[in-house]
């Protein structure tokens, strides 16, 4: 990492945080970071403890030939080359700690919750200098954790298991194990398709905001190395901001998640604004007047009253929360439907159903749009060449609506933007081809339409090139490059 690109400051309100030590251009690497430890996320389904691919946790599933814990067949055949599983494997084998088969490999496997804290403890023993220099001062919020349900679960599921079953009683105190668990809960970042979490010391220093200016990628092929880039131009001295929660969730959801897992209330400009920076991402349509929007009078307070912007209509915060809970449950149910036409049509029905209740850019509508974008062009009866013009225009509209939100919450160069640009270019091209074949589009208008798609792909490929080639995004980068070459050739032969 280039030391001159960021520096660490400290204040009583925020603790340690990073600022740019000079002007950064959008796309420029701000810092790189290697994980102190990496392993399964809390609640992960059974996965290979070496490469993290999904495995069968039921009886008969692939196991490590030495310790019997989950390992895919390929990694099991190359056990001598094990990097991540090696240390815990020796411990499990020595103390005959057995993996208990599960009944459903699609559900959370609580046995794996011990793996990442164990790897932190083993990394501390193997690299005490880095632990003392980068990890030990990380916030673990032990005071807030003491006595709560999560602490008690950790105490029984992880602490006692590691000390008693795994033979760490003489090596690790209860306090040390709890510290490792707390540091992970507060500071770890999801590292690979949401199945792994990594403890990245430099990333952990960065301030949280619900509007980011730093984008990061994790590279499994490089030891899960994290590379953070400026998403937008950043001036010298400006705070470097990442997010500790899901940016496309509403304020109530983000605040609840941050309070539950990170033990603080976010006071960023988005959280303090009832309109979420003009997007109305959490606003409901007033049912008492024609033009009003119902917004929270204090977004950071879940019990605050909600009020219409045009009339005197008011609602209790609990009522809004209940309405959102019902809507979200209906959407979650659709996610379990078979991947096919009925699923797509059900999402469209629900989208239409909520039209009179929610602002067009509401986060519920945004989540439905994401599902529809994924389905249009990929399922039988709705494959891209089969889509009529009206549905091609529908997919274009869906993409542009989400981009309006992304441009506010995650501005500049980001993975989210790259993926949406790829989704957007395809219906633009197919629609242009359809209108050309019908004789309604040709000449310069056709060329301009295809040039627009070229620009989208150029921007998309620039950002996807930063992704690791072993990830789905990295694979898409190659596909996008090929599409760009072909599209450019088409444009070149047009008169």
Give me a quick take on this structure:
The chain is an alpha+beta fold. Helices cover about 45% and strands about 10% of the residues.
Distance between the termini: 49 Å
Biggest pleated-sheet summary: 4 strands, antiparallel
Are there runs of 5+ residues with pLDDT below 50, and where?
Answer: none
Strand order of the largest sheet: 11-12-13-14
Tell me about this structure.
The protein is 45% helix and 11% strand. The chain has 495 residues and is an alpha+beta fold. The strands form five sheets. It has a four-stranded antiparallel sheet with strand order 11-12-13-14. It has a three-stranded antiparallel sheet with strand order 3-9-8. A three-stranded antiparallel sheet has the order 4-6-5. The radius of gyration is 25 Å and the shape is globular.
Tags for this model:
single chain, 495 residues, alpha+beta, 4-stranded antiparallel beta sheet, 3-stranded antiparallel beta sheet, 17 helices, 14 strands, 45% helix, 11% strand, Msta, SET_SmydA-8
SSE topology sketch:
Layout: E1 6-11, E2 15-20, E3 29-33, E4 37-40, H1 73-77, H2 86-94, H3 115-126, H4 128-135, H5 142-145, H6 149-165, H7 174-187, E5 189-192, E6 196-199, H8 201-205, E7 207-208, E8 214-219, E9 225-230, E10 241-242, H9 251-261, H10 269-272, E11 284-285, E12 293-296, E13 306-308, E14 314-315, H11 317-334, H12 341-353, H13 363-375, H14 389-409, H15 415-437, H16 443-464, H17 472-493
Parallel strand pairs: 7-10
Antiparallel strand pairs: 1-2, 3-9, 4-6, 5-6, 8-9, 11-12, 12-13, 13-14
Helix pairs in contact: 3-4, 3-7, 6-7, 12-13, 13-14, 14-15, 15-16, 16-17
